[in-house]
Structure to design on (184 residues):
């Protein structure tokens, strides 16, 4: 009988040890799941995530998303701010029954300087924005089916070493590819 109780105690000790190991494994798994959930780029904007926008702006950017409301487009704004400048990437998207007419109105921002963009949605165009207070930027307007999108890419830093005139143009084109691709 003494030997049966020793076997039971040994068996119970092994069960308790296995239960402790299983609990440790579950605890570690939950820790990794929690870390994975907290270690992703914010993606409030449906067309471009914060990590991609940060890369386009040249440093970490903070994103903000405002959903569409009656008569107002959805707006994603990504901002990178430093002591002496602000870089901004702003995307608007609106669903409208007469997209072509709305696109023509949005493209008036460019006037005669609009440059057609090939393979970016439908009828997309781009132009440079110049402001007398030293800010510069690029503006894109295009459509995908019944969705009108605009992209405004600006910097307030005169002679910005990251967002030069050529870089602004290239990065606005990349943003337009991303946005129009996500709208399809």
């Amino acid at each position: 009988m003494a030997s049966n109780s020793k076997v039971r105690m040994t068996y119970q000790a092994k069960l308790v040890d296995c239960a402790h190991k299983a609990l440790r494994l579950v605890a570690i798994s939950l820790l990794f799941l929690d870390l994975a959930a907290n270690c992703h780029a914010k993606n409030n904007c449906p067309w471009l995530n914060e990590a991609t926008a940060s890369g386009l702006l040249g440093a970490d950017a903070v994103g903000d998303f405002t959903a569409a409301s009656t008569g107002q487009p959805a707006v994603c704004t990504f901002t990178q701010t430093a002591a002496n400048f602000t870089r901004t990437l702003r995307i608007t998207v609106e669903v409208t029954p007469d997209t072509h007419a709305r696109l023509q109105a949005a493209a008036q921002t460019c006037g005669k300087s609009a440059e057609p963009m090939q393979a970016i949605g439908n009828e997309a165009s781009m132009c440079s924005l110049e402001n007398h207070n030293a800010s510069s930027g690029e503006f894109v307007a295009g459509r995908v089916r019944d969705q009108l999108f605009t992209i405004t890419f600006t910097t307030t830093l005169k002679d910005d070493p990251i967002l030069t005139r050529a870089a602004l143009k290239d990065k606005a084109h990349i943003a337009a590819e991303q946005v129009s691709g996500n709208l399809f």
The two ends are 76 Å apart (CA to CA).
